[in-house]
Amino acid sequence: MRHLLNTLYITNPDAYVSRDGENVVIKVDNNEVMRRPIHILEGIVCFNYVGISPGLMRLCVENNVGVSFLNEYGRFIARLSGEVKGNVLLRRTQYRYADDKGKAVSISKNFIIGKIANCRSVLSRAIRDHGNSIDVDNMNHVLGNLSSALEDVKKTSDSDELRGIEGEAARSYFSVFNNLILQQKQDFNFTERNRRPPVDNINALLSYAYTLLTFEMESALETVGLDPYVGFFHTDRPGRVSLALDMIEELRPYMAERFVISLINRKQISPDGFIAKESGGIIMDKDTKAAFLTAWQKRKQEEITHPFLNEKIEIGLLPYVQAMLMARFLRNDIESYPPFFMG
Amino acid sequence: MYSEDELLSLSGIQHYYFCKRQWALIHVEQQWSENMATMEGKVIHENADDPFFTETRKNTFISRAIPLVSYRLGFYGIADIVEFTVSKSGVEVKGRDGKWLPNIVEYKRGKPKEDERDIVQLVAQALCLEEMLKCKIASSDFFYNETKRRVKVEITEALRNQVVILSDEMHRIYSERITPKAESGKHCKSCSLTDICMPRLTSKKASVANYIDKYTKAGGDGN
Q1: pLDDT of residue A287 exceeding 90
Q2: Given B207, B208, B219, which is nearest A147 (Cβ)?
Q3: Which of A169, A234, B127, B172 lies in the 20 to 30 Å Cα band around A67?
Q4: Distance from CA of B202 to the nearest CA of A (A)
Q5: Cβ atoms of A25 and A19 closer than 8 Å
Q6: Chain A: nearest CA to B29, how far in angstroms?
Q7: Does this complex have an ipTM over 0.90?
Q8: What chain A residue is nearest to B31 in terms of C-alpha separation?
Q9: Which residue of B has its CA nearest to A63?
């Protein structure tokens, strides 16, 4: 498997990123604060406003380094992409399948099966590890719901019904999500999932994690020659990366939710790092974002065995591997798309 | 005869000979992945320090980067170096007096391969040149960078037939746009496309249905 390289997250609003030879140079107030060779990078994510130089953009495109621009809240603004990768035939197949209701729903089922199964694994692992300090009865009840939701997903062939099952399963799962918080409980309290804007600390963390995951999925899809904008479960909407959103469904519990939980439980994030805006929306301060990104980058380097490939990979490569498997499925190498299941 | 639109890259014949799937990934699916081997290849081709630098001798001249095409094979490509030598049985060459016989010199990194993948490429180049110059080429050379040696290859009838058969197969697969399944083996180790190819994916009968069942059975998380 290919190697996972570093992603450079630029959060300082005053940073300007430019090129010097084969190096990426970050300057603040015209003083160099960091310098890295391009070949150790996989992507650059700019949360800043000052931006990056055209010369650096070219260097990134030539070296296959993805560049994304997000605003300070983590909302996606733009992405830099070079030549369209890969094969027009693969994209055509993707579009044909997306237009074919029967095919689209059967692929979508696998995303949702992956998602619900992974939600179930997150909860059963919590019971296994902390059974004496959480409300096991309630959790077991939800586990039962998730198991029957899985059976329902397998049986359905209707996209609206699938959406219904997925929504119900998510509600059920998030209803016991607060049980997973074992530390700093008075400051990290989860009642329900909300996002525009997130109104509590945990939702702010979750939103941030989903944003990063979506960005990584989007780059991975580009890399294998798929169009991140044309999905099977999420319908087309201008500017929405529907396929990337489809494909992170199964990765959310493992890569985002469990990550956020452990940030809180390991006290890598402190409640002081959140600011409540007048509107009720919660945002993270600079240090909290930095701590989040450092932990995220570290987590990406942990190794797991991919359950379908049976190969050791870094967690950060999961989006790429799943994108690859999707491409291989669309090219007819495998009979259907194998979602990622956490062990 | 193939039309211009149907021409395939001549250099693909060595990929095809090595592995049909590798060729399809590169030429049909347009995937390309550089590894040490392909990087080295590039460097060698860009290398100015080469033994053919003395351009013109009395009876020979050297031409570089010659565009090639064969409508019979349906191939196009470029020959690194062609040496032309004065010969009564030769052909006329634009801008030169007299008659000349072409001899291709193909650069390769490393040393001669155990299989014939380089040879079929050289023969395909020769067939292109024959078609373009309307001549007959009896032999051509490799220059191997690792051994710094020239190796002569006779362009035999058997090799010519083999190249025609390979070109027929390549055009058939290309027109179907189907990437052949992997025949995984030792050669996968030296392939720069293994990550993209995932050879075991197509060779093992990996059932996605069984995989999903295993991880979704009641209460199960795959353990």
Answers
A1: no
A2: B219
A3: A234
A4: 6
A5: yes
A6: 5
A7: no
A8: A86
A9: B34
